[in-house]
């Protein structure tokens, strides 16, 4: 069997239209535009409308990625949705996406590695392809963290934003694509960044609501120190394991958490900031969605081209961190244009009919 390489062949992003600026936040909590910009680099972030959710943003980003890859949703073998703000505790948000986009033969599951999740998901999808188990994988990072933020807590509410980004990963015999990855964790720091309520440790109750356990809790200073250390380490390790050096890297796309963390990492790597993608000023920290969103913008700005070596590096709750080195590709050659969006009508009808069939079966069995 010829070796399979895992190429990124499609990409897409979906962010809500609604913008929340630092000036808006200064009317809600005791903060200022000047403080937020100087400590984080963030000017504004996007906030989901009431009718938008992690699954709807994920599905939109996924469809856009399929459009770029020119891949029919029915061809997908696997959908991984990385998220820390899932639609529900279960079912998995990935299953809702599978139904929405009409990916009839795909497995679907969520991955929770917080802001590092997209790097984990890329590697998982790529490994499944390299083992020849699957050919076409959709990985999505999607968040509506605005639903988990305490809008009275100035330590956290200034940081986060909503959005989604997606990659299509496909098998090809052409060398390139995902070259290496390093994934790490340290659960001893789990309490530094968490949402403690609503799970099995602190089930939702009047008391858990009263104590605010359903909100994001964070020790900002500790997370900051951890982040600056691991971003450098993980980048170096993934480059070394591909037998390359920083000189071979055309672009670094870091998790968009804080301008100061990114600059400290670039200094630590002795790497010029003009080869580091930053767009957190307009989106804030969208957690696992930040890397695919930044990637889409890098491509639009012509900063990432086929053949380039790009490192994506992230850190987050868990604690988790990781990096992946990708030789950038682009859509695989194709004979005819497909339109993933055109099958949406069929997907909705199929979903409706499946629900109807279950209801009828339920009634019939109930009579027996
Ligand atoms: N506006 C104004 N003042 C604020 C503030 C805000 N939004 N948030 C905190 N402050 C105050 C603090 O109360 C503190 O006041 P004090 O000295 O009187 O106690 C002061 O500013 C400094 O707080 P500190 O926490 O030391 O600030 P900092 O320079 O570490 O910046 C963060 C705070 C949160 C921006 C920074 O620690 C950070 O970005 N950490 C990483 C967080 C992160 O990336 N999380 C997501 C990981 S995926």
Tell me what you see in this structure.
Helix 3 crosses helix 4 (93-101). Strand 12 and strand 13 form a beta hairpin. The protein is α/β, with parallel strands linked by helices and 368 residues long. It has helices at residues 22-26, 33-40, 54-69, 93-101, 117-130, 206-210, 220-241, 259-269, 280-283, 290-300, 344-367, and strands at 5-14, 19-21, 44-46, 78-82, 107-111, 136-144, 162-172, 177-185, 193-194, 217-218, 251-254, 309-316, 320-327. The protein has one domain: Thiolase/Chalcone synthase (Peroxisomal Thiolase, Chain A, domain 1). The chain has a 5-stranded mixed beta sheet, sandwiched between helices. Strands 8-13-12-11 form a 4-stranded mixed beta sheet, sandwiched between helices. It binds coenzyme A. Coenzyme A is lined by residues 31, 35, 39-40, 115, 154-155, 158-159, 193, 218, 220-221, 223-224, 257-258, 285, 316.
């Amino acid at each position: 069997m010829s070796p399979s390489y895992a190429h990124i062949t499609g990409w897409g992003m979906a962010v809500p239209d609604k913008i929340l600026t630092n000036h808006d936040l200064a009317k809600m909590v005791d903060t200022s535009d000047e403080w937020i910009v100087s400590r984080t680099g963030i000017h504004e972030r996007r906030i989901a409308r009431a009718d938008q959710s992690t699954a709807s943003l994920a599905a939109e980003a996924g469809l856009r990625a399929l459009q770029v890859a020119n891949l029919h949703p029915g061809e997908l073998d696997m959908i991984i949705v990385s998220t820390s703000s899932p639609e529900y505790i279960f079912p998995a948000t990935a299953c809702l996406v599978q139904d929405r986009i009409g990916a009839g033969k795909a497995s679907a599951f969520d991955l929770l590695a917080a802001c590092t999740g997209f790097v984990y998901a890329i590697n998982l999808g790529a490994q499944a392809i390299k083992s020849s188990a699957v050919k076409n994988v959709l990985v999505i990072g999607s968040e509506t963290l605005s639903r988990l933020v305490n809008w009275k807590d100035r330590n956290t509410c200034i940081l986060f934003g909503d959005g989604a980004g997606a990659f299509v990963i496909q098998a090809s015999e052409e060398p390139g694509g995902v070259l290496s990855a390093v994934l790490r964790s340290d659960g001893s720091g789990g309490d530094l960044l968490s949402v403690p309520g609503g799970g099995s440790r602190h089930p939702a109750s009047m008391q858990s609501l009263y104590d605010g356990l359903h909100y994001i809790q964070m020790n900002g200073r500790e997370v900051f120190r951890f982040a600056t250390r691991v971003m450098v380490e993980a980048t170096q390790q993934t480059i070394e394991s591909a037998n390359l050096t920083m000189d071979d890297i055309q672009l670094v796309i870091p998790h968009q958490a804080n301008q100061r963390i990114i600059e400290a990492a670039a200094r630590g790597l002795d790497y010029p900031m003009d080869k580091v993608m930053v767009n957190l000023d307009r989106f804030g920290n969208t957690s696992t969605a930040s890397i695919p969103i930044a990637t889409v913008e890098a491509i639009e700005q012509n900063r990432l081209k086929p053949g380039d070596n790009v490192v994506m590096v992230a850190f987050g709750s868990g604690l988790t961190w990781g990096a992946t080195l990708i030789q950038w590709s682009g859509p695989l050659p194709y004979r005819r244009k497909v339109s993933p969006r055109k099958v949406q009508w069929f997907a909705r009808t199929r979903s409706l009919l499946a629900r109807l069939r279950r209801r009828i079966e339920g009634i019939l069995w109930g009579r027996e």
